[in-house]
């Protein structure tokens, strides 16, 4: 794997994100990955930041709450479609998605959370800030469309500590 600059990959990332990327977490020895289709990237606190929005109902939420890091693995060429579909519809509460899909993990030196092999890009992020969405602060049209059951997101802001190209 080759290390690359975060800014170099931003356009590619934004194009692919709506189709889904892998958001991987690890806590208490459990590794899980879910499909993520929303998110932002930016620059604040003099740091490159990637923000991952995770609804409270997700198993990922439970794990990320107990971890300092998350990783994002990005299939730039439309690969791993079946896997993204599975990881976006099945919960780690009831499935060991890594084993069931035979996903290969790549260990990294920066953190305990691994990467999902077979993706073109991997972003390693260290959580610096998190915020639960407050429904009263959100425009009503979005509440009605996206949060009918009030399953709000927590926004996890991670400092980009490394980006790897596979
Ligand atoms: C294309 C796609 C994008 C998704 N994006 C998100 C997202 O950004 N945030 C989120 O909380 N769930 C998102 N989901 C839903 C989760 O991936 C799904 O609920 C998953 O089963 C959660 O797994 P977990 O319970 O193991 O964490 C998305 C699903 C799909 C198919």
From TrEMBL:
Pfam families reported for this sequence: Flavin_Reduct (PF01613)
InterPro entries for this protein: Flavin_Rdtase-like_dom, Flavoredoxin, Split_barrel_FMN-bd
Highest rank taxon of the organism: Bacteria
Every Flavin reductase like domain range: 18-164
GO molecular function: FMN binding; oxidoreductase activity, acting on the CH-NH group of donors, NAD or NADP as acceptor
Family: Belongs to the flavoredoxin family.
Protein name: Flavin reductase
Organism of derivation: Halanaerobium polyolivorans
């Amino acid at each position: 794997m080759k290390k690359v600059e975060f800014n170099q990959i931003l356009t590619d990332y934004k194009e692919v994100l709506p189709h889904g990327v892998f958001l991987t977490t690890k806590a208490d020895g459990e590794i899980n990955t879910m499909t993520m289709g929303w998110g932002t990237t930016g620059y604040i606190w003099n740091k490159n930041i990637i923000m991952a929005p995770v609804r409270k109902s997700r198993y990922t939420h439970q794990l990320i709450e107990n971890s300092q890091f998350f990783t994002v693995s990005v299939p730039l060429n439309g690969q791993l479609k079946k896997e993204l579909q599975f990881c976006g519809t099945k919960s780690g509460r009831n499935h060991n998605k890594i084993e069931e899909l035979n996903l290969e993990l790549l260990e990294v030196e920066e953190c305990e959370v691994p990467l999902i092999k077979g993706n073109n890009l991997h972003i390693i992020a260290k959580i610096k800030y998190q915020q639960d969405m407050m429904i009263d602060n959100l425009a009503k049209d979005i509440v009605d469309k996206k949060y009918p059951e009030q399953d709000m997101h927590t926004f996890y802001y991670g400092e980009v500590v490394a980006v790897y190209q596979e």
